[in-house]
Amino acid sequence: xxxxxxxxxxxxxxxxxxxxxxxxxxxxxxxxxxxxxxxxxxxxxxxxxxxxxxxxxxxxxxxxxxxxxxxxxxxxxxxxxxxxxxxxxxxxxxxxxxxxxxxxxxxxxxxxxxxxxxxxxxxxxxxxxxxxxxxxxxxxxxxxxxxxxxxxxxxxxxxxxxxxxxxxxxxxxxxxxxxxxxxxxxxxxxxxxxxxxxxxxxxxxxxxxxxxxxxxxxxxxxxxxxxxxxxxxxxxxxxxxxxxxxxxxxxxxxxxxxxxxxxxxxxxxxxxxxxxxxxxxxxxxxxxxxxxxxxxxxxxxxxxxxxxxxxxxxxxxxxxxxxxxxxxxxxxxxxxxxxxxxxxxxxxxxxxxxxxxxxxxxxxxxxxxxxxxxxxxxxxxxxxxxxxxxxxxxxxxxxxxxxxxxxxxxxxxxxxxxxxxxxxxxxxxxxxxxxxxxxxxxxxxxxxxxxxxxxxxxxxxxxxxxxxxxxxxxxxxxxxxxxxxxxxxxxxxxxxxxxxxxxxxxx
Length: 507
Known about the structure:
Keywords: Carbohydrate metabolism, Cellulose degradation, Glycosidase, Hydrolase, Polysaccharide degradation, Signal. By secondary structure, the protein is mostly helical.
């Protein structure tokens, strides 16, 4: 990608002043302190509320019970376990795999900042997902990518312990390819293998072996799973961006996990074919481009791989697009209260994932003694950290409403989240089955949810006005998801260990 010429000196000076002023606006006040350790503990605890299958004896979200204990049985496979992705009762493999990758990346980059207790719980959360992904990839040449009929499930409002909707199993294979979901699954297994390397070497090796075989399948039988399984996965988790980014993403994580040169050569050989040069400012369960550029850039910044310099250039361009006032053609907006905002539903998924990349890249720059160059301006790693911290603090309550968007954190937080298990009486409180349509009364009730899903982060403000409707039917604003929380683990871990900006590396 050819960079535009730098602006003339007067405009450049004005741009630098703009950046400085906006960073002051986005910088939290010194008096506003948050308990990042408490928020980290709760953000990990949230995943226990999303568990499917047989719950362990140390389950801490005690209003949940065992659920979906026969998943896969009708197809002769064991697909119990894993996570419900959001407020419904379907197990979607694509976002679950992305969630796993981001939880593992949080552990890899920020595990030392978590402290032993938080790190142990984070690894349990990762393992609950990877144990399921191992089951879903146990049959060679097949990946089970979804359990549950999404349309039938979404027509009901019932607890996971009660659900009586079809637990239909969906899979991809050589005749029905799914390189996107397979590539993400390979990335998740490879990333998790790194996370477990020093804690459980045998399990780590098993994850890496499976990641290798899953990636071979993804690359050999190319195609989008939203074409093969369109009626089942769309519109919920339809892959709009195509499968090419997941192939590069999977190869990047396999190279990082295995250090095998053939994955490095795969990236170089397919860089153009798979659109690695696309400087797309997106990162989430559907689009991995920004994540690929940041992940691979670490190798370049550390001087280990000059052949992939284009990824670092793309990463710089991406980071510049997030820095307030820097880009001439911004793709990111900020609300008056300072929240990063992208059009579409569930904005917090963008806030946490993009902030995670800001923080990760700032650390890579710090270790390399580098800065981000944005045309005629530049930004030091500390400035990236400030923007990321501002987003975290907004989530935790430093916003115009004075509301924490993490359930159970702070004095004021969403009470009517779009979540079946949280909004319906628990099995302990109401032992009798609550059938499909009987839950509608609870769905429409203005009363707060009876069960607190501690640590859940909801979709957040619906527009750039910082407004939030704390009502259950507004699912784009009030529904929590696993992939909102996953990158937040790394963010909270860093600021837990470094709450004071003066403790950050001075760059």
